[in-house]
Write a sequence for this structure.
């Protein structure tokens, strides 16, 4: 079982925190002096002097006095001060790369990398690949196009640094990708969960038995699917491989680290992570759902400090069977704080909706419209049936409606559509759409 | 004016040759021992012992006793011994990347890189970028998709190593690329000559004045166009930028180095280059057209030794105004030995045909069918007219037919087609097609 930096990955929590606060202090000092965006924010919060900032970086409680920052703030700042915004050290070292967020929620946020931060981004993937024992005997296939999204460019560099044959599946059809995976005897597949399903579907349509391919490890991110038991089981069964969920955010860096026990850790040596109640902004306890709020250490020229990711998860701090003491997310990322629906006082995330659909079985693809009326929500669900499903459409339709009602007291309206009718995509996307603008507050 | 390795780039020819033969000897020794493909070839040529091989690596004359190798041989070998073929050192270090030739002439040849050879490939582009004084203040835009073709992946690494902002224009439409070039204030554009024309066309269609963009340097490869004066002038005029031709071959490495005087040098510190008559295989003199035959030093695990590139050029050995003593190709790559047409004893290459069409003016795009009958050839040319052309279709049609007849005694049949009727592509492609299988030998 491999480690990138065993010492810190298995250190007692106090030692991790000492490491984090040393890095935090140096980051905050620099940002309060040379970063106009954070300097302004700090001053507005009454932290005018360097001494104030040093004091802040002494403990988790004091650090929480700093304001959080959010995507919209950074977007507004980039719009007002193109192209970089003011979240740039001055003078800044030269930038060598530029990427942007996927923009599913509006204007994309641009991120720039220096040579140093690019190496750091690669390091984050080295943590991940080494944890899964990827070695030079492996062949990694990256099933995605190399475009604007930062996503997996760093996997490429990390794979090469490890000495693994690292194949870039850009500019190919899904069938060509399946062929390449089979013929090159790829052992590791990197993609999104929905694209892992899509590739399996294309293989089956072309009578290619991908269970017999050499792929034994699938690393996914970009969507919550991998942490949903039903989806995970489905992908693992179709591929005859183990699935690992390794989440990252363009604007933050690749924060996730899936361990051999399929736990999702956060790389606490490279990020300071707070888990906060999205409403009250207070820390949640172990096992409670909280929003991940991040400060990253490896992009000092354009850092995020107390950045609200909107991703919600349940932190656990026990030692993992893998030996890591890095915070673990029970069940991975369970949803977005933006996507949370409150149904009779219960927080419902899309991942829970997905879990119920998968649990009902016999569904190959689905989409959900969330319809809000007064304080109630109902779901309009479209499903495609498995080619080898056991019941008739009407049976499956009823089963899903009944299960939602039984489990969540939620009214659903399920429609069976022909196979292939729902959109598929290799890029990350949501199967959930909200309808009716005139709906109650979603928070 | 920058250099990557000024000492060798400006060394006297004798010093270059001493450097080359030292590297040749070490390559040949290793290949004759541990590379089954070349060991077999060397033995078949009567070079059975290590001593024989050492003797061979003493002078250009002796070295010519080694057999040449060709693409078909390597392809057959890969087909017989998949996936690598036998041209692999044994034991081989791990490969980290795999690419393939563009396959316009049949099955693609696969090439593998080790970490070391990948670094070498990046080095070749550092020679190029430094020669054109690219620095961290530059922004490089690569207008192509990051797919199977090796092409410009190395530009990315080299650009980043230099500290320049290096933008990967994958997964974008041509208009989005134009927008990105303008908005990111790219100073350097890397693409194929025909795609530089295409981007200019798209910009004009959308009323974007790319002459006013920050692009001052365009580096192209993959097609002969850049060394054709008419095409070069057209691209330079449309973009208000200088054009540099920097040829490379997937199976060999990036052999070309365009200098500020727009001369096309070969990187003789990293390749041993022979210029041979395609028929007789004897060295051609300065200024004479010969086929480029290459031995590369930086891929010792999968080298090419005396590899016939099929590219034809005229070597010149005088010192260039840029200070380099590396062999210069007068007029760049003038054609492929495969594409050579002998008309009344005169070797005609597609580049000459293109030059004549461009010289006639008023043509925005063209395609050529080469029709062979007995010992004679005629050309069927389709042209699209410039939006701002001065003469009528009939005038331009006649002008081209007359010019071909006057210059080459060649019969042509010119047809004017509507704007946009001819195919465009970002990938390298030929505007030339041969028709009628029952034609005389083309050699």
């Amino acid at each position: 079982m491999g480690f990138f930096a065993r010492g810190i990955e298995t250190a007692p929590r106090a030692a991790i925190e000492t490491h984090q606060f040393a890095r935090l202090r140096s980051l905050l000092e620099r940002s309060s002096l040379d970063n106009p965006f954070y300097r302004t924010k700090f001053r507005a919060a009454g932290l005018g002097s360097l001494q104030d900032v040093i004091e802040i970086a002494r403990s988790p409680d004091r650090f929480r006095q700093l304001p959080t920052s959010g995507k919209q703030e950074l977007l507004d700042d980039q719009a007002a001060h193109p192209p970089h915004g003011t979240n740039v050290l001055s003078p800044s070292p030269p930038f060598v790369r530029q990427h942007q967020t996927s923009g599913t929620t509006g204007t994309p946020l641009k991120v720039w990398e220096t040579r140093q931060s690019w190496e750091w981004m690669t390091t984050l993937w080295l943590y991940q690949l080494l944890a899964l024992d990827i070695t030079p005997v492996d062949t990694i296939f990256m099933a995605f196009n190399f475009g604007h999204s930062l996503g997996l460019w760093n996997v490429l560099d990390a794979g090469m640094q490890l000495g693994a044959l690292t194949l870039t599946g850009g500019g190919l059809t899904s069938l060509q990708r399946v062929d390449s995976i089979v013929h090159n005897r790829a052992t590791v597949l990197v993609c999104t969960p929905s694209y892992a399903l899509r590739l399996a579907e294309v293989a089956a349509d072309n009578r290619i038995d991908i269970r017999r391919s050499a792929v034994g490890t699938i690393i996914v991110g970009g969507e919550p699917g991998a942490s949903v038991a039903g989806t995970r089981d489905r992908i693992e069964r179709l591929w005859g491989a183990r699935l690992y969920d390794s989440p990252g955010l363009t604007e933050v860096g690749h924060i996730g680290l899936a361990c051999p026990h399929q736990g999702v850790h956060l790389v606490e040596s490279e990020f300071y992570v707070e888990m906060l109640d999205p409403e009250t902004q207070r820390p949640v306890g172990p096992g409670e759902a909280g929003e991940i709020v991040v400060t990253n250490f490896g992009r000092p020229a354009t850092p995020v400090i107390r950045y609200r990711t909107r991703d919600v998860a349940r932190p656990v701090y026990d030692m993992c069977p893998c030996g890591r003491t890095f915070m673990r997310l029970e069940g991975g990322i369970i949803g977005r704080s933006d996507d949370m629906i409150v149904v009779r006082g219960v927080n419902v995330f899309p991942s829970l909706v997905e879990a119920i659909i998968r649990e009902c079985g016999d569904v190959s693809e689905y989409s959900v419209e969330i319809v809000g009326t007064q304080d109630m929500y109902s779901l309009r669900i479209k499903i495609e049936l498995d080619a080898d499903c056991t019941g008739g459409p009407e049976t499956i339709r009823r089963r899903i409606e009944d299960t939602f009602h039984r489990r969540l007291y939620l009214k659903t309206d399920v429609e069976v559509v022909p196979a292939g009718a729902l959109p598929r995509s290799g890029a990350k996307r949501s199967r959930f759409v909200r309808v009716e603008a005139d709906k109650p507050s979603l928070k």
